[in-house]
Specification:
278 residues, 434 Repressor (Amino-terminal Domain), Endonuclease, Chain A, 6-stranded mixed beta sheet, 12 helices, elongated
Length: 278
């Protein structure tokens, strides 16, 4: 089990409290009612709802059953007590299922929401070279779980911009890159994904400052997530979000068109297929 993050820093704990309050309101129950069902005090139930205390598994199960949460609180409890995600991306993981449009720029790697399991395992192994195998596998599982958003009846639409080196760089054992590009082509055909490639010949361009992800949520808000090697954060400030929306537009202007990007993807896949046969 992972070491608990301080409550004030744990986005998933806050999400647990928000969902608990929402379900309690719908069921017209009090915090005391929840406490009685879960055999804790009403004060503790309130502290959990405010994101100040960690719930026990029994609390999550009893509250979910009483409020007819359909497993929501249990799923959130499980996320609180594993290390499938670095804790700093918790707010991103919470926001992704609420997005209707996701725009991502990546200069070095395939965006996590688009990675095949083989690609994810190869990159997470390389990035955690001193970690035990079981730790890497938990991270792989966490990354794959994030992709459940594509299984919704009306999944989000994603626009991803990547540098050409992301497509051309061989990652993992034979077959990984061919399968990865094949997944791109399938998602493009399903109209879930639009993938644009910035060719190496473009030289300097607006994305050299680093990767970022823009999320347009069902409630009309736009958020931007930025990350470096050690941490990440969700930015809510309207001015900063607007600046990144404009930067994404600038990146679209220097990228190849959708048709040109599609041809590059097919060419890259044929190259990987050929190298594996050689």
């Amino acid at each position: 089990m992972a070491m608990k993050i301080p409550p004030t820093e744990n986005h998933t704990l806050r999400q647990f409290g928000i969902e608990l309050a929402r379900l309690r309101s719908l069921a017209e129950k009090s915090q005391r009612d929840i406490g009685v069902a879960a055999q804790v005090s009403g004060q503790l139930a309130g502290a959990i709802e405010r994101g100040e205390r960690y719930p026990s598994k029994e609390f999550a199960e009893q509250a979910d059953q009483m409020l007819q949460g359909d497993g929501i609180l249990i799923d959130l409890w499980e996320r609180l007590h594993n290390d499938s995600y670095p804790h700093f991306i918790g707010e991103l993981v919470d926001a992704e299922p609420l997005a209707v449009i996701i725009r991502a720029y990546e200069p070095q790697l395939i965006p996590g929401l688009l990675q095949t399991e083989g690609y994810a395992r190869a990159t997470l192994t390389a990035g955690n070279s001193r970690a035990p195998v079981e730790v890497v596998e938990r991270l792989v599982v966490g990354r794959m779980k994030r992709q459940n958003i594509w299984n919704k009846r009306n999944p989000a639409h994603m626009i991803a911009i990547v540098d050409e080196t992301v497509i051309r760089r061989p990652i993992g054992p034979a077959g990984v890159m061919s399968s990865q590009i094949g997944r791109f082509l399938d998602m493009i055909e399903q109209r879930i994904l639009k993938l644009l490639v910035i060719p190496t010949g473009r030289g300097q361009h607006p994305g050299l400052t680093g990767p970022f992800t823009l999320l347009s949520l069902t409630d009309g808000r736009d958020l931007v997530y930025v990350e470096d090697a050690l941490s990440g954060r969700m930015v809510h400030t309207p001015g900063a979000v607007r600046a990144m929306v404009l930067q994404f537009g600038d990146l679209q202007e220097v990228a190849l068109s959708p048709d040109e990007s599609h041809r590059l993807l097919k060419d890259a896949k044929e190259g990987f297929d050929g190298s594996e046969l050689a």
